[in-house]
């Protein structure tokens, strides 16, 4: 069966679609069969990213690795038929969830073998995972963490195995070191209580916004004629390499 990777939280602007697109294309470049499904039926950032990629390939004549994309079905359970379409032809299926609580997102989390939760490195986003006292002490899990806990219970009852949950600290800045340490300490404490791993994600870089209209990723730059890589590009590629390695996906050896 395909390994299902869910990228989700319940807050917009944390880098879910950028993370989904880069992980999907990295796996495809390494020779794995990859499928994708955008569960954000309104904004469709991941779906539009893939559409931009297809259009760029058609215009330029460049053949870039492309995840197989499926669309949601109809009826009360639109997710199952889409997954049934993808699963026979995929090693990995990535589900990009909306930045809000929806039934589709809740269903997707119960299917996750690996869950990636991008989180902007601030206490505003941290509140999605846990409630804090005014002194910064963790009081207990918050809405999203409780939803993941419920998904874990449902998987356990169905004998479907554990969810490997990875929280990404996105947009890590070089400034505000005191706040960065406080967020890091709170995440480390919470990770032991509710069971997730913490890893650095993507720093804030202009390149990510520039790549979207053409549907490109950091790994495509040389294929489209970018010979001179800036230090920012090289550092961003290393962040992606570190992320894919940290995911510890079955049968994946990082080779880019």
Automatic annotation (TrEMBL):
Please give the superkingdom of this protein's source: Bacteria
Q: Which SUPFAM superfamilies match?
A: P-loop containing nucleoside triphosphate hydrolases
Q: Which InterPro entries match?
A: DNA_Partitioning_ATPase, MipZ, P-loop_NTPase
Q: Which CDD domains match?
A: ParAB_family
Listed PANTHER family: COBQ_COBB_MIND_PARA NUCLEOTIDE BINDING DOMAIN-CONTAINING PROTEIN, P-LOOP CONTAINING NUCLEOSIDE TRIPHOSPHATE HYDROLASE
Q: What is this protein called?
A: Division plane positioning ATPase MipZ
Q: State the taxonomy lineage.
A: Bacteria, Pseudomonadati, Pseudomonadota, Alphaproteobacteria, Rhodobacterales
């Amino acid at each position: 069966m395909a390994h299902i990777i869910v990228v989700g939280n319940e807050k917009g602007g944390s880098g879910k679609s950028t993370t989904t697109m880069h992980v999907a294309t990295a796996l495809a470049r390494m020779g794995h069969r990859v499928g994708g499904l955008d569960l954000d039926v309104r904004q469709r950032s991941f779906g539009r990213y893939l559409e931009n990629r297809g259009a760029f390939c058609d215009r330029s004549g460049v053949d870039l690795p492309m995840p197989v994309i499926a669309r949601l079905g109809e009826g009360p359970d639109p997710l199952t038929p889409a997954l049934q379409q993808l699963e026979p032809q995929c090693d990995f299926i990535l589900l990009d969830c909306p930045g809000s609580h929806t039934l589709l997102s809740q269903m997707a989390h119960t299917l996750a073998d690996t869950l990636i939760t991008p989180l902007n490195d601030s206490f505003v986003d941290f509140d999605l995972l846990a409630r804090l006292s005014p002194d910064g002490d963790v009081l207990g899990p918050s809405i999203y963490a409780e939803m993941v806990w419920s998904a874990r219970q449902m998987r356990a009852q169905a004998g479907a195995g554990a969810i490997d949950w990875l929280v990404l600290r996105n947009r890590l800045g070089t400034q505000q070191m005191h706040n960065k340490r406080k967020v890091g300490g709170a995440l480390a404490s919470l990770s032991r209580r509710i069971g997730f791993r913490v890893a650095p994600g993507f720093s804030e870089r202009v390149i990510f916004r520039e790549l979207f209209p053409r549907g490109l990723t950091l790994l495509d730059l040389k294929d489209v004629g970018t010979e001179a890589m800036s230090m920012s590009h090289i550092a961003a590629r290393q962040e992606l390499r570190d992320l894919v390695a940290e995911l510890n996906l079955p049968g994946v050896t990082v080779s880019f």
